[in-house]
Amino acid sequence: RQRWLDKLTAGLRKTGSNISQVFTGGQIDDQLYEDLESALLMADTGVKATQHLMDEVKRRVQASGATRPVQVKNILADSLAQLLRPLQKPLVIGEHKPTVIMVAGVNGAGKTTSIGKLTKHLADEGATVLLAAADTFRAAAREQLAIWADRNTVEIVSQEGGDPAAVSFDAVSAGRARGKDVVLVDTAGRLPTQLHLMEELKKIKRVVQKADPSAPHEVLLVIDGNTGQNALAQVRSFDDALQLTGLIVTKLDGTAKGGVLAAIAQERPIPVYFIGVGEKLEDLETFDAREFALALLS
Ligand code: GDP
């Protein structure tokens, strides 16, 4: 646990704002609050969540009669943890067999890597996993997924140049027939220009439902934690189109923009099932609101 927390802390500390810096002065004054507001904005907390946190912190400082900056820091940590709490929820599998998990995300977000890590995580828990290569547009995507399937020694349903929805349908049917616990559906992050990504993804969702009326049981979006407010925009548009059930936030081992989770909590409190803290198979962790708040402020 410690190792990844250190990575997360080191990554978050790269922020030019360095929130902890705000509390090194001798007193609680307007300057401190101004500096805090800028630091939160620099960490990509966004205007709304920053405003919420500022109001909350000022109110609690007043109510508690705090006089030292370090007390403000503790109050901020509590307020931030409270704001992030709704995002802390475990991914539960086992209610359905197979549990069908559709995974979306723009190219480069870390989707394929996250699917590889998630496969290992599920396999470590004793689940049998089947991968579906429903990004049929890019040969490289299929090959990448096959590599992760190999590394995890799990089966993959893949078809060169096939229709993404048809591959997904086949995979869910195969998952049922082979008694798998989980079917993970990898989807495209970009399409040839004449096709509309959201329409394709909605179609996959519809067709998966034909293979199993209760599926997909989870629709996850992978976002790059480094992209700050851009990640929030992606959450909005994918959620509008697909009704997301969870998020995986990647690259938190090297970012200054971890505040975006506060913005997500404020606007679209979709559970963060996992965070990515590196490129290796084991660099996937469950999200803990309090730990994350403390890392952001350390
Ligand atoms: P995709 O296009 O969304 O499938 O993205 P990939 O899974 O291919 O990842 C894009 C790049 O990000 C690769 O170089 C990955 O190694 C890297 N990457 C993915 N997740 C993480 C993470 O949590 N931390 C770091 N540092 N790099 C990551």
TrEMBL record:
Give the primary localization class: membrane
Q: Which UniProt keywords apply?
A: Cell membrane, Cytoplasm, GTP-binding, Hydrolase, Membrane, Nucleotide-binding, Receptor
Provide the binding site for GTP. Answer: 105-112, 186-190, 250-253
Name the chemical reaction catalysed here: GTP + H2O = GDP + phosphate + H(+)
Q: Enumerate the spans annotated as SRP54-type proteins GTP-binding domain.
A: 271-284
Task: Give the first-level EC class, as a single word.
Answer: hydrolase
Biological process (GO) annotations held by this record are: SRP-dependent cotranslational protein targeting to membrane
Q: Which residues form a coiled coil?
A: none
Give the highest taxon in the source lineage.
Answer: Bacteria
Nucleotide-binding recorded as keyword = yes
User: Which compartments is it annotated to reside in?
Assistant: Cell membrane; Cytoplasm
What does the record give under GO molecular function?
A: GTP binding; GTPase activity; signal recognition particle binding
Q: Name one GO cellular component term.
A: plasma membrane
Membrane topology type, per the record?
A: Peripheral membrane protein
Instruction: Quote the EC number.
Output: 3.6.5.4
Q: What does this protein do?
A: Involved in targeting and insertion of nascent membrane proteins into the cytoplasmic membrane. Acts as a receptor for the complex formed by the signal recognition particle (SRP) and the ribosome-nascent chain (RNC). Interaction with SRP-RNC leads to the transfer of the RNC complex to the Sec translocase for insertion into the membrane, the hydrolysis of GTP by both Ffh and FtsY, and the dissociation of the SRP-FtsY complex into the individual components.
Assembly information from the UniProt record = Part of the signal recognition particle protein translocation system, which is composed of SRP and FtsY. SRP is a ribonucleoprotein composed of Ffh and a 4.5S RNA molecule.
Family, similarity comment: Belongs to the GTP-binding SRP family. FtsY subfamily.
What is the name of this protein?
Answer: Signal recognition particle receptor FtsY
Organism source for this protein? Caenimonas aquaedulcis
Covered range of the whole protein: 54 to 351 of 351
